[in-house]
Design brief:
6 strands, alpha+beta, about 110 residues, six-stranded antiparallel beta sheet
Length: about 110
């Protein structure tokens, strides 16, 4: 799949399960990415785990939640970025087929 095809899948995924928001697109050697400014969560059951946040991060309401999903045969990594205890941004990554990837991710905590 080309990056254009992966971006199409990510855009469809974002419209179906997140909604509208300002989007930026990026491609690198590992995959294709959409960075979305939004305050809406994901309207779909997905597996997630939270990164440990230090004392200063907790004080400022910082939290990074990592999730993963598969949609139309595409492996998607989802990063929910919270600041001041509110969701601020979602990043969606669709991995290219030739990337050596451990899937699904090993660390899982139900959120």
């Amino acid at each position: 799949m080309s990056c254009d095809d992966l971006i199409d899948v990510l855009v469809e995924y974002s419209h179906l399960f997140i909604g509208e928001g300002k989007k930026k697109f990026h491609e690198d050697k590992h995959g294709c990415h959409i960075f979305m400014i939004t305050n809406k969560g994901i309207n779909r059951h997905i597996e997630c785990f939270e990164e440990d946040t230090g004392l200063v991060g907790k004080f400022f309401g910082r939290k990074d939640v990592y999730c993963y999903d598969e949609y139309k045969g595409v492996k998607i990594a989802i990063n929910l970025i919270y600041r001041l205890n509110r969701l601020r941004m979602i990043s969606l990554t669709a991995f290219k087929k030739d990337v050596n990837l451990v899937w699904p991710p090993k660390k899982k905590i139900k959120t």
